[in-house]
Amino acid sequence: MQIKLIAASLLTVAALAACTTRPVTVNTPGPGETTVQVPVPANPNMLQTDDVRASLDTALGTDAAGIDVKVDGTTVYLTGHVATQALHDQAVSVAQGTPGVTTVVHTGLTVQ
Prior knowledge:
Elements: H1 2-17, E1 19-27, E2 33-41, H2 44-60, E3 67-72, E4 75-82, H3 85-96, E5 103-111
């Protein structure tokens, strides 16, 4: 019995290792909503998005907050806004320098 329990636990851990989490907003009884992290199967685009987002957050700090990242294969799409042209150029450079990225489309990233 213990062997079956251990085997089931290992399978669960292996399944969750191939997952990531995403925020989901749910309606709750009473006033307001709540946001919870829900495990979802990881796919290469999600993992690459996380890598680019982490690189931007590290390089730009709070200046990266206005940048949205989408990935399709090896192409990264940056949208949103930054305060200066220098931050825009840095964001594009950081995204291009992320392993696995071959193209960065930044026409939707504006300077405000």
